[in-house]
Automatic annotation (TrEMBL):
PROSITE patterns: DEK_C (PS51998). Residues 3-60 form the DEK-C domain. Residues 94-103 have a biased composition (Basic and acidic residues). InterPro entries: DEK_C. It comes from Trapa natans. It comes from the Eukaryota. This is DEK-C domain-containing protein. Coiled coil: none annotated. Signal peptide: none annotated. It holds the Pfam family DEK_C.
Length: 103
């Protein structure tokens, strides 16, 4: 794929993703929209991989920006859990007490 066309595809993908409902968007729908807008076929394996890479990059950038925008403060004595919740020592002890031991 030529550099000029690749740049147009990248720009168009980002524009579409910014406006799209990401819960409904699929790579296929995205490829079809970009293809229709630019009037080129994006059905080759290389094009599909480019679209996939652009989607992943967009999603990771979106998540990173969201994390940077949020100032997370944990209550005193709390620690973050694996799932991102904050668990206080008191709640942690209570959960251990209420949860039966796994045998």
């Amino acid at each position: 794929m030529e550099a000029e066309i690749r740049k147009k595809v990248e720009t168009t993908v980002i524009e579409i993703l910014k406006k799209a409902d990401l819960r409904e968007m699929t790579e296929f729908k995205l490829r079809a929209a970009v293809s229709a807008e630019l009037g080129i076929s994006l059905s080759t394996v290389d094009c599909k991989m480019l679209i996939r890479d652009l989607v992943e990059s967009f999603l990771l950038t979106d998540v990173q920006e969201t994390v940077e925008d949020e100032q997370v403060e944990f209550p005193e004595g709390a620690r973050p859990s694996i799932r991102g919740n904050s668990i206080t020592k008191a709640n942690d002890a209570l959960m251990k007490k209420k949860t039966p031991e796994v045998r």
